[in-house]
Design goal:
Length: 84
């Protein structure tokens, strides 16, 4: 009878250990899942690319911040630092 109790305790301990191991493996796989690419836009003032959800749209142009939206768009030559 006591062997049956020991066997039951070992089986329960193994079941709990295996359940925890599967949960940890599932969490690790979820953390390693590939990320979906996000659309980016170029700031019309400084030329920096930002994620579209973080960008600010103003007067038909995209900007990286409210400050740059307030300052307005610049020409592409000004983005690279070339003098005109």
């Amino acid at each position: 009878m006591k062997y049956l109790v020991v066997l039951a305790v070992v089986a329960i301990a193994f079941w709990i250990w295996n359940s925890n191991r599967k949960d940890a493996l599932r969490e690790r796989r979820a953390a390693q899942a590939p990320r979906v690419p996000q659309a980016t836009v170029r700031c019309a003032h400084c030329g920096v690319h930002v994620v579209r959800q973080e960008g600010v749209q103003h007067e038909g142009h995209w900007f990286c911040s409210k400050d740059h939206a307030r300052k307005g768009a610049r020409s592409p030559a000004e983005h690279s630092g070339a003098s005109s």
